[in-house]
Amino acid sequence: MTDSIGHKPWMTTAAPVFDALEAKGGVGCARFVGGCVRNAILGAPVDDLDIATTLTPDQVTQALAAAGLKAVPTGVEHGTITAIAAGKPFEITTLRRDVATDGRRAVVAFTQDWSEDAQRRDFTLNAVYADREGALFDPTGVGVADAKAGKIVFVGDAATRIEEDSLRILRFFRFLAWYGKGEPDAAALAACAAGKDLLKNLAAERVAKELLKLLGADDPRPAVALMGETGVLSQLLPAAQDLAAFDALVEVETEQLFTNDPLLRLATLIPGDQIGAGKAAEALRLSNDQKERLIQAMGKTPRITSWMSPRESRRAVYQIGVGTFSDRIKLAWANAGRTGATHQWRGLLALAESWTPPPFPLTGEDVINSGVPKGPMVGQVLREVEAWWIDHDFIDDKFSAIEKLKAVAQGMAY
C-alpha cells in the first residue's frame, strides 16, 4: 500500500457487494479499480464503481446469490459480472491476464495476481486499486503519480497495448483531453501514429462512443489537434481537415458557459451539408436520433445570420424547431469568426429559448365550414392561410385568420 484516498461516501454504497465477496473469498479479495479510483485521486466526481476480485465469475455469482443480491452475467466470458445492490449496478471483474488478442477482442485467463491484472490494463493512471477504506495499491509504481501529474502513459509497451486493442488509441486521446497536463507522452503518441491503420478494424459503434466521450471534455482542442497531427483524426473523419470551426465552437461554449455538446462539436468535423452529415452518421453507426439531429443542424434554409430580426427568428423557430434553430445558431456562430457579433448571437438564442411558438388557430374543419369540399384542396387552403399567418408574425386574432380563410377559399376554383 502506497497511499490512501480515505473513505469516500460512494464506498459505502458498495458495502453490500464487498460484504458478499469477502464472505466468500476473505478480506482483501476485492478492490475498487479504474475510473472511480482515478477520479478520487484527482478530486473529480465519481460515477461508475468498478470492482476487481480474485474470485472467479462462478464464485462471484455464488457470493452475490448467498447475500441476496442480483447477479447479471454482462461479460462473463471476460470475467465480468454486474451486481445490483439497492438498485445500483456494480461491475465486478475477476483478475485476468491476456492469453491471445487480435486488436479487437482478447482471450483471457483468470489469475490471483493483482500485478498481473494491472499489466493488462491500458494506462498507469487506470491501473490503481483501492480497498473499501481507500488504501491504494499501485502495482505499476507510477499510477498515482501519473494521475496527479496528468501523464497519460501506457502500461508497459505502448505498441503492445495498442495491438491488444486498437481502441486504446482513441482512449489515449480521450484521457489526454480529460486529464492530461503538460507535454503528452512521446512514446504513446508515436505508437498511436504508427497504429492508426488498426482503427479501421474496429466496430463503428465502439469508435463513435469513444469519440463522443473525447469530444465531451471541457477543452478537447489540444487532443484533437494532436489527433490531426498523428493522422488518427483523418483515419476516423476524413473531412476533418480544418479545425477552425471546431476550435471556435469550443471557445464559444467555454466563454458563454454553455454545456459541452459533443454531438454538435462532431458536426464541425464532418461534411457541412445534410447528405455528408447523413453519410458520416451512418459510418459511425450513430443512433437515429443523433443522425437526425446532425442532418437537421446542417440545413441551409432558413438562412441563419447574426443580424436576423426577431420576426425572422420567430419564423425560423416555428419552421425548424427550437433545438435545430439553436444548433444552427451555434454552428453559424462558430463559422462566422466574428467575435463582435456575440451579443446578437446570444440574443437569438435567448429569443429561441424564451418564445413558445403558438398553435395555428385554424383546422381542417374550419376550412370545410368555409365551403371548401373535402379532399386535397383543404390542405392546400390551410397551408396558404398558415403562410399568411406566419407572415403576419403569428397574429393572435382568430377572427382575422378566418377572414383570410374565407378570402382564400373564395379565390379558389374547386
Describe this structure as you would to a colleague.
This protein is an alpha+beta fold. It folds into 4 domains: 1-149, Beta Polymerase, domain 2 (2-Layer Sandwich), CATH 3.30.460.10; 152-236, cca-adding enzyme, domain 2; 240-357, no CATH class; 364-410, no CATH class. Helices cover 52% and strands 11% of the residues. It has 22 helices and 10 strands. It has helices spanning 9-13, 15-25, 35-42, 57-66, 114-119, 143-149, 158-164, 167-179, 186-194, 204-215, 221-230, 232-236, 244-255, 262-267, 274-283, 288-297, 310-320, 322-336, 342-354, 364-369, 376-391, 398-410; strands at 3-4, 30-33, 50-53, 70-75, 80-85, 88-94, 96-101, 106-110, 129-130, 135-137. Strands 1-10-9-2-3-6-5-4 form an 8-stranded mixed beta sheet. It has a two-stranded antiparallel ribbon with strand order 7-8. Strand 9 (129-130) and strand 10 form a beta hairpin. The relative contact order is 0.06. The model has no long low-confidence stretch (mean pLDDT 92).
Mind sketching the topology for me?
Layout: E1 3-4, H1 9-13, H2 15-25, E2 30-33, H3 35-42, E3 50-53, H4 57-66, E4 70-75, E5 80-85, E6 88-94, E7 96-101, E8 106-110, H5 114-119, E9 129-130, E10 135-137, H6 143-149, H7 158-164, H8 167-179, H9 186-194, H10 204-215, H11 221-230, H12 232-236, H13 244-255, H14 262-267, H15 274-283, H16 288-297, H17 310-320, H18 322-336, H19 342-354, H20 364-369, H21 376-391, H22 398-410
Parallel strand pairs: 3-6
Antiparallel strand pairs: 1-10, 2-3, 2-9, 4-5, 5-6, 7-8, 9-10
Helix pairs in contact: 2-4, 8-10, 8-11, 13-18, 15-16, 17-18, 18-19, 21-22
